[in-house]
Amino acid sequence: MFTNQIRMESRRHLPFFLTLAVIQLACGLFFSLNGNSDLAFASLLINMVIGILVPIYIFMDCYKEFYVGSTVLNHMVPMSTFSLFVCKSVVFLIGCLMVWAAGLLDVLVNPTGFYSLRMQASDSIEAGLFYLFASKFAGVLCGLSIIGLSLSASKQFHRRVPSMFTMTVVVLVVIGALAVPIASQTEHWSLGTSSLQAFKQYAGFLSITNVYEGTVANVNDTIQWSSVFSNLIAMIFSMLGCLLLFGSRRYEIYGK
Predict the structure, then answer these.
(1) Which pTM does this prediction carry?
(2) d(Cα 79, Cα 40) in Å, to the nearest integer?
(3) Longest dimension (CA), the chain
(4) 20 and 53 Cβ atoms separated by less than 8 Å
(5) CA 229, 225, 148: angle at the middle one, nearest 5?
(6) Among 75, 131, 133, 185, which is least packed, fewest CB within 10 Å?
């Protein structure tokens, strides 16, 4: 049953992620081969739009599924609500990594990209490559669990105002708790952008890039493994919260 549900969710959602991955790949290939620095802003803008679209798409689908309850067929599936959320999360994780992997072309192949200019001069290319994957993987897992926790917590209330307030507070509190330690490492930082100066850090789906004064000689010094572990810890506790709240009597009454 679990496998069949994942297959069904894949047919529904992977075409969307595949489309974004193709767009990301085409743009990365074009900008990598073109080598025109004037087009760098266009590449950054496309990446930012895709980076915003992905979490919005995931949230809206989960909102319709677990808050509104508009997917009628899933009401008849002999699975717990938490199991359905896990199935969706597996598919969304695959989709997010597909889009992210397509965007690596510009990072790894572009002669003026992050790999060529910064990672090759670091003390360990392998450590940098592993961090690229580990940080994104942990961030996506955490982002998915935060969405589930916010929706399951919000349905503990019957009235719409406290429900929506709870949903918003859960998202802001968890992401804020993850983001503040990252941003506090430097005086300046940026959200949702890339930089040749440092590796990205993640607070769920939110990417944060610390801005350093001058150029850090070894770019691996900008790696924050603590942010990866924080995302994984937040994911574990959020999923435990989802397990309890999706299975609660209040969710069954006020939920689907």
Answers:
(1) 0.90
(2) 47
(3) 59
(4) yes
(5) 35
(6) 75
DSSP codes, 62-97: HIIIIII---HHHHTSSS-HHHHHHHHHHHHHHHHH
Residue 62 is classified by DSSP as H
Distance (Å, whole) CA 244 – CA 235: 14
Q: Which residues contact 40 (CB under 8 A, 6 or more apart)?
A: 31
| Residues counted in the chain | 256
Give the type of residue at 136.
K
Which residue type, as a one-letter code, is found at position 23?
A: I
Q: What is the amino acid identity at position 198?
A: A
Tokens of 121: 């001069």
Q: Does residue 253 have a pLDDT over 60?
A: no
* CB atoms near residue 159 (< 10 Å): 9
Q: What is the pLDDT of residues 179-222, one digit of tens each?
A: 999 988 888 888 877 777 888 999 999 999 888 877 777 888 88
Could you give the CA distance from residue 14 to residue 24 in angstroms, rounded to a whole number? 15
The residues that bridge with 208 in the sheet, in sequence order, are 191, 201
Q: 197 is written with which tokens? A: 């100066």
Does residue 194 contact residue 44 with C-beta atoms inside 8 Å?
A: yes
